[in-house]
Design brief:
Length: 200
């Protein structure tokens, strides 16, 4: 297993122990035929918060991207890249809307894509959301824009300078896309500006 604790103090990767399994069962994790506890890893991460302070973060992700996420977040931390919060989505009862409204950055959540019966890439631990309130999910219905988060409408207009905006010049975008992640901000059918998903 990747020994991040030696290379990057404050960053680590571990299998999900019994306590973590109990913490997420019935919330972000449900019995299913597609992904098991053994497929997941628990990451402890340092990040720079909106006040410029070092903060402790935690993520659960698919084991195949665990070391990649450590590399990415270590680079973001060294660059003082601002991330407001990084808690397991279970702290929000696995409610994606509540997590995003609190601008929480998170990864694994066994759920479907909104208003569909298709599993999200988050269900496989292969997608991550970064500063979601400032980088909202935008859909277009009958040529009308709909912003998923109430209060985040201001941040949907990407033509103006915005705080914490992810765009093609942003370090977060550059790091994730250089590691085989796709950015939801590049989608044509909708815009998911906070979302990155792994495609090997």
């Amino acid at each position: 297993m990747y020994n991040s604790s030696t290379t990057y103090p404050g960053f680590s990767i571990a299998p999900l122990d019994t306590g973590l399994q109990q913490r997420i069962y019935g919330l972000s994790y449900h019995d299913n035929p597609y992904i098991s506890y053994q497929d997941l890893r628990y990451l402890q991460i340092l990040y720079c918060d909106f006040h410029g302070n070092t903060a402790d973060g935690e993520l659960i992700c698919n084991r195949i991207i665990a070391s990649t996420l450590i590399e990415i977040f270590y680079s973001l931390y060294n660059a003082d890249y601002p991330i407001e919060k990084m808690h397991l989505i279970d702290d929000y009862q696995a409610d994606d809307d509540l997590s995003c409204l609190d601008n929480n950055s998170s990864c694994f959540n066994y759920r479907t894509i909104d208003q569909t019966d298709r599993l999200s890439m988050h269900a496989y631990g292969l997608a991550i959301d970064i500063n979601p309130f400032y980088n909202p999910y935008v859909t277009f219905v009958d040529q009308k824009e709909h912003v998923s988060l109430p209060g985040a409408e201001y941040y949907a207009d990407r033509s103006k300078p915005l705080p914490y905006q992810i765009n093609h010049q942003d370090l977060c975008y550059q790091l994730f896309t250089s590691h085989q992640f796709q950015w939801g901000g590049d989608w044509t059918h909708c815009k998911d500006y906070h979302h990155f998903e792994f495609h090997p």
